[in-house]
Design brief:
Layout (H helix, E strand, L loop, with lengths): L7 E11 L3 E19 L4 E6 L2 H4 L6 H12 L8 E7 L9 H16 L6 H12 L3 H8 L2 E7 L2 E7 L6 E6 L6 H6 L7 H19 L6 H4 L6 H4 L4 H6 L8 E6 L6 E5 L2 H15 L5 E5 L6 E2 L1
Parallel strand pairs: 3-4
Antiparallel strand pairs: 1-2, 1-11, 2-4, 2-5, 5-6, 7-9, 7-10, 8-9
């Protein structure tokens, strides 16, 4: 094991999964980033700035370091290199914006680099997806744009489109977070054929909207019957903002991931500029934060 592995910089984007009907299949990379400067060090150390810096800097049960250690241990490394992390975070934690996927992916990529595992991007993707439990957020975080992911014979199969779309995205962030495990527990075990067919149709239309740069399709394509109706009570902001789907200048509205944040896609610059005020009025929540962003490229490794 070399004692002089070069430092590594990672920039991992936030992600919004599902996008309405694409439950556990679709993910969208957004231009809010977890940036990590990592280097070998005498001991593990974390310095953090940005959003939720105090949580990002915690050493105990730190998801990045825990993943890093577990990957190298499972790979048979007897000596785990100590690293220091200088983190700047822009991704809201516990808000359905892919913070855990970014942390897991970062841990795997750090282990691959400092542990000299020589994994391919596919191996990195599959290890992070296995740990996340589903591929949507991880694939979008690694690959960027809008990703479609499926599991086939224990492998992750992905396709990406929409990386260069100049669409306007607004994230409405309530003050209280929601654990993904709690949000998943709200879902039923079975669905009607009508609900399943509607979601299949809308998901296909949604992929076409991104592939063909047709935001006018989103108003229909982002309608969902699989998870959003069952998460309304735990994510009350969704119930308040879904009516904006009929507002001029709004292309589509959906829960961001498992919630509680809500994703709003605007049709143009003018609508995007007006929407924060409209979202605040509809939510009637003075603590609500509205973040304006765009579609992002995938993880940058330097």
């Amino acid at each position: 094991m070399t004692a002089h592995t070069r430092p590594l910089r990672l920039r991992l984007p936030a992600t919004s999964a599902n996008l309405g009907p694409g439950f556990d299949a679709l993910g969208l990379a957004m231009a809010l980033y977890l940036t990590i400067d990592a280097a070998e060090a005498p001991s593990f150390h974390i310095k953090a700035s940005g959003r939720n810096a105090d949580l990002c800097a915690q050493m105990k049960n730190n998801l990045i370091l825990r993943t890093y250690d577990e990957v190298l241990t499972n790979a048979g490394r007897e000596s785990i290199p100590y690293i220091s992390l200088d983190i700047h975070n822009e991704i809201p934690l516990g808000m359905g914006c892919g913070s855990s996927a970014a942390a897991l992916l970062a841990g795997v990529m750090l282990a691959n680099h400092f542990g000299h595992l020589s994994w391919t991007r596919q191996q990195i993707l599959e290890e992070a997806c296995r740990r996340e439990g589903h591929p949507d957020n991880v694939a979008a975080c690694l690959l960027g744009g809008m990703t479609v992911s499926a599991m086939h014979k224990h492998r992750v199969v992905t396709a990406t489109c929409g990386e260069n779309l100049n669409w306007h995205i607004l994230l409405a962030l309530p003050s209280a977070s929601l654990a993904t495990e709690k949000a998943r527990a709200l879902l039923p075990a079975t669905y009607t054929r009508a609900d399943a067919v509607t979601n299949i149709q809308n998901t296909a239309l949604l992929v076409a909207a991104f592939a063909q740069n047709r935001p006018e399709l989103l108003r229909t394509a982002m309608q969902d019957r699989i998870h959003q109706p069952y998460r309304m009570d735990a994510c009350p902001l969704l119930r308040l903002l879904l009516p904006l789907n009929d507002y001029p200048g709004v292309a589509g509205v959906a829960l961001s991931g498992a919630g509680p944040s809500v994703l709003v896609i605007a049709e143009n610059d003018e609508a995007a500029a007006k929407l924060p005020e409209i979202i605040h009025e509809a939510a009637n929540d003075p603590a609500l934060e509205v973040v304006r962003t765009t579609i992002a490229q995938g993880t940058l490794q330097v």
